[in-house]
Amino acid sequence: MGHKILKYFLSGMAVLLFSLTAFAQDAAEKGLDERINDAFAPIAEWWGFIVFYPIPVTSTTSVPIVLLLLIFGAAFFTLTFGFVNIRKFGLALEVVRGKYDDIEMAADPDHKEPHADPNAEVNIVDGDVVGTIKDEGHHGEVSHFQALATAVSGTVGLGNIAGVAVAIGIGGPGATFWMIVCGLLAMSTKFVECTLGVKYREIGPDGTVYGGPMYYLSRGLGELGWKGAGKALAVLFAIFCVGGSFGGGNMFQANQATSQLTTMLGLEGGAIRTIIGVILAVLVAIVIIGGIKRIASVTEKLVPFMAVIYIIASLVIMGLHFSEIPAAISLIISGAFTTDAAVGGIVGVIIQGFRRALFSNEAGAGSAAIAHSAVRTKYPASEGIVALLEPFIDTVVICTMTAIVIVLFNMDGFFQYGGVNGNVMIGDQVVNGVDLTARAYNDALPGFNFVLTISVVLFAFSTLISWSYYGMQSWAYLFGRSKPADLTFKLLFCIATIIGAAASLGAVIDFSDAMIFAMVFPNMIGLFFLFPKVKEELTRYLKAIAKS
Q1: What is the pLDDT of residues 1-47, one digit of tens each?
Q2: Has residue 133 been placed in a domain?
Q3: Does 112 map to a domain?
Q4: pTM assigned to the model
Q5: Which residues pair with 142 in a beta bridge?
Q6: 111 inside domain
Q7: Is 137 exposed, middle or buried (0-12, 13-18, 19+ CB in 10 A)?
């Protein structure tokens, strides 16, 4: 009965989303998006308060509970696995370039076949669950590099451009230091969740891979004797992931990309935004209808291209300001331990750095485990090791470069760190994250605004197609693996793209964006109970490499 109610509830949400399409055409004219926001704002505020419940750490500063959970988890896994993020970094690079592909496809003589106990609800043999050994031995659908590119494309987005600018503007240069520290710690969390994603994945009759937290929560916790709890957590995660895929993973990306395009072109209005939304939706549809293989084939080309553009531009600016880099680094290090009340003191600086790093790379949210589950390998730990590169690329490299460029830009004091009421101010003007980043890059490279616009659109598009896959996998878990269910989700996702581009549904996006961070709660529960399985898989994989 409960499962039927869930289906009706989600079907109702889908119908509601579908009906919102009409608002896109006349939102600017009739103000329908404003009316939706007014009606939805109390729900969004209530949901956001639960997800980001503030925990006081000083008399004047509090930290969202979800952030504390992510920080604790990242530190715990880093220590538990003996700094696997550092020790296995070189191995991760070797695995990505295919050095151990032959080993991963070969049979493992030490991994015994099961002898099932027909009377047991969950059968365990040699530390594995009966029914998963065949699944995890399946070759999968994509290569290590493709899986990494797909996951990176889901995290490298507007947060690297806009979010970092806000974090530095409010928290000061020192936020960069803590952003790097947090990015390094988050690598361990990614290693754990992506190893579990491959270990407990399922393979459909046609070879399609189904994986992610939904499966390691239900099957992994079921192995420990908590089948009901595991199933409930899996369903919760899937609901949050579907909601997050429509909002933060879709409508927000489409909205910001459209805003950047219309600003650059000097065009505005509901009609032009709708046209851009339709074009974007068509491009998304062309990619996602082909499934993970087509998504991976696009992201493996798109991610390196857009990352190289952004990194080269950042390096050029650093080169032009080479003499100022030592002073900038000094500001970053000293600012990390500041007691300046304007930026919230040392606690405020740490919170800004950690918040941006974790919210950017999504380590602990479990989303990346869905993409990494599709990899071709017989050793789950091989993909976990590859996955630890993701926060490094997203946070330690790209976010840090954005931060350094902004610090260099402000060496002459264009704005005051700390802002006013949480906003970055240049003079008496409130500046958003994208605009602050654009000003920083344009200051050294006049006309870079055009390149930045291309970067924003590419980042948004890559995030869109990756989150379509995350949402699609969660949708399939809730509604079944049928063609009608698959096409229904893809249609709704493309409609949401048009809505996001054409209407400013801020409260709706805030609500669904909070769902992404709500994914952390069920996912982290699974990670804390299942990490011993990751240790077993890591030992098995390293043993296979040693024998080669």
Answers
A1: 445 545 554 555 455 445 554 444 444 444 656 666 677 678 778 88
A2: no
A3: no
A4: 0.82
A5: 375
A6: no
A7: middle
Distance CA 548, CA 436 (A): 51
447 in a domain, yes or no? yes
Collapsing DSSP states into helix, strand and coil, what is residue 445? coil
Share of the chain above pLDDT 90, in %: 18
Which residue segment(s) compose the domain that 446 sits in? Answer: 2-92+142-547
pLDDT higher at 347 or 80: 80
Could you give the count of Cα atoms lying within 13 Å of 371 in the half-sphere of its Cβ? Answer: 33
Phi, psi (degrees; rounded to nearest 5) at 290? -80, -5
427 three-state secondary structure:
coil
Write out the H or E segment, with its range, that includes residue 242.
helix 227-246
> For residue 412, what is the domain's CATH number?
1.20.1740
The total domain count for the chain is 1
Name the average pLDDT for the chain.
79
Are 533 and 217 contacting, i.e. CB atoms less than 8 angstroms apart? no
Separation between Cα atoms, residue 358 and residue 72, nearest integer Å: 12
206 neighbors 472 (Cβ within 8 angstroms): no
> How far apart, in whole angstroms, are the C-alpha atoms of residue 151 and residue 44?
27
Sign of the dihedral defined by the CA atoms of residues 252, 286, 472, 485, in that order: positive
Q: Tell me what pLDDT residue 187 has.
A: 92
State mean pLDDT over 213-228. 92
